């Protein structure tokens, strides 16, 4: 009989929740707090350049440095706009990895969170990888430290280790496969058909969802995304009562009760594609609010409503805003292009081991 196990790591869950206590309040109430308080000293001066001046200078610097901006859907819309206007790219983590690998640019400016910059470096050791905010991390990454994960894997040596992309380079190096939400189901189905049992980390909700729809024997690490875990089925149902014609589009990192009432479950790119292909004109979107920019740009004739999270105002952990994604700013991109700071570096042995697991994902094609 297929089984699913979730291994509790409450200490680490509590650790990142405590770390967010002050962080999320500022990210929600003052989304540009981090950018304005970590940027060079000229931002405190009366003659500080305007956003438009910085934007224009960045365009020139990108050409001068042979660099491109690769931005995630969850970053602020001005960064997505910058990437699109300058020959860069906006996408989910799998698409970002593929674009960076195939780009001719010598420097990749990865606007997202740290594991995305590390992934870019793993795939492009010869390129310079810069990040606007090196301290921008992820609750899933924080909640899966390599020492604990190594011990966990050693308890199940017979299982194929599959980790979500939202993990450190060290964790990827310990894995057999790396997957994103857009490819996880297909990879697990492929491994299941081969008779393999799975050790999955770190997102318990995505893991449980994949286990349920594939009926695969999986041992699942106990981790969660601080944004998606806050979506509540009760709040979405209440919103559906207000907008009975709205369809619910949900990311699989959301809790099971949310997925059970969703009309579509998929990755960020999948959500965009689903909104485009569905005839419906109104949607409730259960993922980070940054995706609304792309949805409204691509489908201006349709209405998109952010799904409610726990609590009201700033009492929720995230309020559908990733505090780490919001640490990326135009000011920081300008600064790192000028100085070359915030470069991602990895140990060669870690990079090579992680490359094997990542390459399996990039080479994988659904059969």
Explained architecture:
A five-stranded parallel beta sheet has the order 1-9-8-6-7. The chain is α/β, with parallel strands linked by helices and 367 residues long.
Q: Would you summarize the structure shown here?
A:
The chain has helices at 10-29, 33-38, 51-64, 77-85, 93-102, 114-123, 139-142, 146-154, 169-174, 184-193, 204-214, 233-242, 256-260, 268-277, 291-298, 330-339, 348-363; strands at residues 4-7, 67-72, 89-91, 107-111, 128-130, 160-164, 177-179, 198-201, 218-221, 247-250, 264-265, 282-286, 303-306. The protein is an alpha/beta fold and 367 residues long.
SSE topology:
Layout: E1 4-7, H1 10-29, H2 33-38, H3 51-64, E2 67-72, H4 77-85, E3 89-91, H5 93-102, E4 107-111, H6 114-123, E5 128-130, H7 139-142, H8 146-154, E6 160-164, H9 169-174, E7 177-179, H10 184-193, E8 198-201, H11 204-214, E9 218-221, H12 233-242, E10 247-250, H13 256-260, E11 264-265, H14 268-277, E12 282-286, H15 291-298, E13 303-306, H16 330-339, H17 348-363
Helix pairs in contact: 3-16, 5-6, 6-17, 10-11, 14-15
Give the rounded overall mean pLDDT: 88
Structure class: alpha/beta
Task: List segments where confidence is low: pLDDT < 50 over at least 5 consecutive residues.
Answer: 8-16, 18-44, 311-315
In total, the number of strands is: 13
- Our measurement of the CA-to-CA distance between the termini, rounded to an integer number of angstroms, reads 25 Å
The largest β sheet comes out as:
5 strands, parallel
Helical segment tally?
17
Sequence of secondary-structure elements: EHHHEHEHEHEHHEHEHEHEHEHEHEHEHH
Overall helicity: 40-55%
